Predict the structure.
Amino acid sequence: MWDLVVIGAGPAGASAALGALAVDPSLSVLLLDRHDFPRDKACGDGIAPHVFDLLAEVGVTGLVDDWTPVRRFALTRGEVGVDRDMARPNWVVPRTVFDQRLAEAAQSAGAELVRRRVRGIEVARRSVTVDGDLAARYVVGADGAHSVVRRDLGVKPGPVALAIRGYAPTPPERAASQVIAYGPGRQPSYAWSFDRGDGWSNVGYGEQLTPDRSRPTRAELLEHLEVLLPGATDGGKSWWGHHLPLSSWSWRPQSGPVMLAGDAAGLINPMTGEGIYYAVATGLLAGRAVADALRKDTSDAGTTYRRTTTRVLGRHLRHTALTAQLTRSGRVLDAGIRAAAADQAIFDDLVELGLADGLITRRLLTALVRS
């Protein structure tokens, strides 16, 4: 009987292990992942400094000290654009590197990592069974956009975007910068180019899937990327399509011994496609909830998890959902970009809202509704 089994050893899963073990290093924690590490993961690779603030709380530091921070951030939509320094730099680190280092940190803290493809879970009164032969007091589902844990809990998926990601040589005009270029039509649809600092950029394009539009093909996704960021596909490689489960108004974790974190919980920022901050934040909170439930000898870690995630992310998720609705209008989106170009404080507000846990400030809302 494991104290905690975490399904998926990416940022959300490794953080869940770290969160639990930081509270009680004696806990037995098993991380399961269907891949050996290092392994690639389709992603924009951008990591906000807030992620490292959270990890420092559980003693994990220095993960990306050998990578170059990125200070510039640009948003464009057609002829409208803003290009400014961020208040704090971000990092662009391939998931082959970041995820392995974070998983190793969890192992150093006391977690055991095993390669295994999980087929399903069964929840009983005082335990959870994984694949019929692994027993745990608690389970955290951190198994990504197509989570089997979410499926077995009966949680319906929310809105989803489809994106394609690759790596291409960084052109001089987009060096030392993270660039997001919004499409001309219905939002959200955007291309990105994030300079890694080593001569290569993570580049891609994504758009939300809706019933009234046909699913875009690989060729169409690459075509949209090239239109929005000319030259972004030149010399590109490692193209990988993936789904992005977008956050919405209605996320509310269940009570009980099973929790969802990161992509499995449907936590991708609809404005920017950012998900690593949410993954680490919810993973840590899920792990701490497990440690708290074990201390109280209760089978319900989910209620504590719901309370803490609501406190940390509840208002932010409502604000990103509102912003996503407002910026479906090209006029409103243009107004926000123009306001950010004119005012560093509004730019900083947008960065916080799109890359971490920011809120709609009064000055940002005023800029948006005056459109």
Q: What stands out?
A: Residues 175 and 304 are 44 Å apart (CA to CA). The mean pLDDT is 95.
